[in-house]
Amino acid sequence: SSGINAEYGVKSYLSTPLDKINVFFEGVKLKLNSGVPHQEIGFYSEFSKQKLKALIADYSVKEVKKGLESVMKKIEKHFTKEQNLFTVACLTMQAEFIKQVEGYENLMKLCYPDAGLKFSFTVAQIHAIFDGKSPRQ
Fold first, then answer.
1. Residue in 89, 98, 51 with CA at minimum distance from that of residue 71
2. How many CA atoms lie within 13 A of 11 on its CB side?
3. Rounded CA gap, 107 and 130, in Å?
4. What is the 8-class DSSP label of residue 127?
5. Contacts (Cβ under 8 Å, ≥6 apart) of 115
6. What is the DSSP string of 33-86?
7. What's the CA gap between 63 and 3, in Å, rounded?
8. How far apart are CA 59 and CA 125, in angstroms?
9. I want to staple 79 with a disulfide (CB 3.0 to 4.6 A). Which of 31, 86, 93, 106 is the partner?
10. Cβ(102)–Cβ(95) under 8 Å?
11. Long-range contacts of residues 16-23, Cβ cutoff 8 Å, at least 24 apart
12. Which DSSP string do the residues of 13-39 spell out, in sequence order?
């Protein structure tokens, strides 16, 4: 079904806007899955609080918007003849991206509970980026 293809295509593009953060948290997940207690994650130099703080600082709302717009342009090329599929792809991408961000926020709270770390962009700002780009019926 084209819905499944659209979802797969969207998911394969989603690593782009937060590429370094994705790599960081994939590493965190691997450590957690290998049995490292969540409260010890920050003791590993490659997953230190300072390293995460620096990564987060690289991803302002402006940078995220630029990354998402770039991905949306790539997706739009695939659906030039099918506006409805492009709309579905944008909605899928928005939902997946927000799920990804919320998952990372949960990992931050779990592994760095007293660090006060959070992204400099909000879910509302992500919605606004998509609302500005996805076509309206």
1. 89
2. 9
3. 25
4. H
5. 42, 49, 52, 53, 108
6. HTT--GGGGGGSGGG-HHHHHHHHHT--HHHHHHHHHHHHHHHHHHTTT-HHHH
7. 28
8. 13
9. 86
10. no
11. 16/67, 16/70, 16/71, 17/64, 17/67, 17/68, 17/70, 17/71, 17/97, 18/59, 18/64, 18/67, 18/100, 18/101, 18/104, 20/55, 20/58, 21/55, 21/56, 21/59, 21/104, 22/100
12. HTTTTTHHHHHHHHHHHHHHHTT--GG
- pLDDT tens-digit map of 85-132: 888 888 888 898 999 999 999 999 999 999 999 999 999 999 888 887
pTM here? 0.82
Instruction: Determine contact, residues 117/53, Cβ cutoff 8 Å.
Output: yes
**Residue type at 29?**
K
- Of 126, 43, 46, residue with least CA distance to 91: 126
Dist CA 24 CA 15 (whole Å): 12
**What is d(CA 45, CA 36) in angstroms, rounded to the nearest whole number?**
14
Residue given tokens 């990804």 in the structure block? 100
